[in-house]
Structure formats: C-alpha cells, structure tokens
Amino acid sequence: MAAAMDRRAERWGLPAHRTIPFAPVIDGEALAVTPWRALTDGAGRGVELLVGHTRAEQRLFTALNGLLGEVGEEQAAAALDFFAPGPDGARRYREAFPAAGPDELYELVHSDWLFRMPTLQLAEAQTAAGGRVHVYELTWPAPAMGGAFGACHGLDVPLVFGNLDRGQPAMLIGEEPSAVAEAEALSGLMRAAWTGFAAHGAPGWPAYGTDRRLVRLFGTGPAVTGYPEDSSRLIWQDHAFRALPLISR
C-alpha cells in the first residue's frame, strides 16, 4: 500500500494524498490562469462576490475515511509535512496551535489547504484588485451524533437552500425539535443573506477588506468579526495557490 501511494504521489503530487480529485485545470483556453491570479489581475473587479467556508471542513472526510478520533501523531505529522506551506510549515502549525492534538492538527491543515485558505485568498485577491467581496464562515455544528461532525464541509449548502428534512442534511441535523428549530432559524438567516446579495449586492454585513477583514459568522447567534482563522491566515499568507499538477509527468 505504501509503495503504491509513493508511486501515485510521484506521478500526481499532492492530490495522491487526498480522495477529492477535483481542482482547476489550466488549459489556456477555458481557463488561462488560476482563479487567484485572474482576480488579482482584476478579472472580477466589476463582479461582486460572496465566498466562504465552514469551520470544520475536513471533519466529514475524516469520518468517511474511518479516522474520526483515530488520528495518531504519525498521521498528523505526515499531513503537516505534505500540506503545510513552506519548509517550516509544520513547525508553524505546532507553534500557532500549541494545545492541538493530532486530530486537530490533521483537521486544521487539511481544511486549510483544500478549502479555507484558497477561499480566503480568493477574497483577498478580489479586494486587492479593487473588487468587492463578502466573506462568511459557518460555525454552527451539526447537532446529530453528539455534534461529532461539527460545522463540516457542505453543511452550508442545505442551509442556504432550505433543504433540511431529507438525505445527509437530515442525518446531520437529527430529529430533536430544538435542533430542527435551530437549523430552520439559521437557514432563514442564510437564505435572506443570499437573496439580498443576489438582488441588491447586500447580504447584510460589510464587504471584506484587508484592514479589518470583517467576516459574517453563521452560528448560534449573529456575529460579524475579524477573520476568525487568523492563525492559519498568517501561516499561509505568502503561499501562492496553483492549479494542482493533474497532468502525468
């Protein structure tokens, strides 16, 4: 198994260490440069954006891989070595999150590399080019199964569309009346924000800027605050995201 993984990693790079084989592919025609570069160059200056992520993006995938609560130090160290940016990325994570155990470190670096930091840098690129962008983070933890999944990847989608009573969203929310009521109330807030943005460019909180980095948190109560994952932001601020190397070498 290890030898097969090594061969895949040699051929495909970092995607070999993930189970999500989706990424921008620069073909020079449909997509000439990465989205981050395009926005930095002003491609979206006249288009208002609404972007965001969940707090525990990786948690769902950790559970699907049977590793929830089972990540050891060796797995955490490998994840930091693979995905943390720069030669000192692993050290910077450990220094920034000194109380984090292997599970949390594993979740943090995976969440940041694949979801959170690319999203944040998209917002920063839009802002740097003079465009307007609103940023959100879903912090509301899915209440079913003792809250084990947290604010996991994809949980914001059914909340935005109000599809809460079937499929995976229903499994994550559970049947407790208080949990259902909480989900419905949060869904109403998010739908109002998205429709307000679609209609008027105004979701109900200030645009993101690199001075205060204001972000709307969707949790148990309304809040607008500075970007809450600032420790991760500082670790990744000098890293340039590129299209993943999906072409065989």
Question: Which characteristics define this entry?
Answer:
249 residues, 4 strands, alpha/beta, single chain, four-stranded mixed beta sheet
Write the layout of secondary structure elements.
Blueprint: H1 2-12, H2 35-40, E1 49-54, H3 59-64, H4 73-83, H5 89-96, H6 102-128, E2 133-138, H7 156-161, H8 167-173, H9 177-200, E3 214-218, E4 222-226, H10 230-236
Parallel strand pairs: 1-2, 2-3
Antiparallel strand pairs: 3-4
Written account of the structure:
With about 250 residues, the chain is of the alpha/beta class. It has a single domain (about 50-235), classed as Alpha/Beta hydrolase fold, catalytic domain (Rossmann fold), CATH 3.40.50. The chain has ten helices and four strands, in the order H-H-E-H-H-H-H-E-H-H-H-E-E-H. The protein has helices at about 1-10, 35-40, 60-65, 75-85, 90-95, 100-130, 155-160, 165-175, 175-200, 230-235, and strands at about 50-55, 135-140, 215-220, 220-225. The protein has a four-stranded mixed sheet with strand order 1-2-3-4, with helices on both faces.
Could you give a short description of this structure?
This protein has 10 helices and 4 strands, in the order ααβααααβαααββα. The protein is α/β, with parallel strands linked by helices.
Second rung of CATH, namely the architecture: 3-Layer(aba) Sandwich
Helix content: 40-55%
Biggest β-sheet: count, sense, barrel?
A: 4 strands, mixed
Low-confidence stretches: 1-6
Overall radius of gyration: 19 Å
Write down the overall mean pLDDT.
Answer: 90
Q: Widest sheet: strand order?
A: 1-2-3-4
CATH class: Alpha Beta
Strand content bin: 5-15%
CATH superfamily: Alpha/Beta hydrolase fold, catalytic domain
Q: What is the third-level CATH name, the topology?
A: Rossmann fold
N-to-C SSE string, H for helix and E for strand: HHEHHHHEHHHEEH
Secondary-structure content class: alpha/beta
In whole angstroms, how far apart are the ends?
A: 21 Å
- β-strand number: 4
- Choose one word for the global shape: globular
